[in-house]
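Entry for the shared binder. Reason: the reviewer on the internal report wants the predicted structure included alongside the sequence.
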Amino acid sequence: MSHIAWEIRITLIAIFAVLAVLNCLLFIKMRCYPDDDDTLIRHRIRTWWSLAGLFSLALCVSPNGGAIFFGFISFFALKEFLSMSPTRRADRRVLFYAYLSVIPQYYFATSDNYQMFLVFIPVIMFSWLPTRMWMIGEVEGFQKAAGTLLWALMITVYSLSHTAYLLTNPLTQNASNGAVDAVNLTGQHPGPGLLIFLIIMAETNDIFQYVSGRPLGKKQVSPNIAPGKTYAGLFGGITLTTCLAGSVGPLITPMDLTHSMLAGCMIACMGFAGELCIGALKRDLKITNFGATLPGHGGVLDRVGNLIFTAPLFFHFIHYCYHQ
């Protein structure tokens, strides 16, 4: 665990402490209101225990453990997407290359191969997959099939792989952009702190939106996609997430207060946009969830919808602010 700074260890312990408190509150509620059906809440908390435990274990065992964890997340998210989307029988041979792309994409991330990381899926796979499709000779439905497959790769593999690059890409001090020496805050390995910051902000933003929107929200942002998403919840989530980011960011990341709050605001806004994008996709496919892999949450893609836009944006925000 030498690659995990003490600030990060305390943060992980705090996460489990919060989950323990939620378990206690749920137990009290069940004793006070035994007739209420709390099955969904119990399943959600239990799933969070599992996810937090697996992620923490992977992060602590090896510097690349977190990247491997998200590599599996990408694979299962891609599998859910393609399983729920209509695909042509002729393209089943092409899907092999789509699944296989997870390995080189995450390899480029963990090996700090920035150029190949950026171009492998948007350029190489973008060219190869349609080429392999026309080589099969099936032209009916080509446009829809190619677009679906490439879009699936972008949101489940390319976007999410930025989480792995956060763990491995070293930071360099850049005084012109106000960079802070990472060694003073998170040891010689700031990556885990950046990734945990991203995940905490993305997930708590969902909670803040719910807490703000339920008592105050009336006007819906997009009634056809997510009737429960209101403007009050949106702005409440942005405000509270930005404040939380300003408190947590300087403690576990190399970001100062200003950059932390900017990052928190960006994560809140684009996390909301990502969730609505996944919601629109589910409406189009006429499904409720992408699966039942995570009890209480649905499928893997349902859970990581708030990361599909925030992960690449946050990565490039850090890269712009803190790299030569």
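Summary line for the report: The first strand starts at residue 220 and ends at 222.
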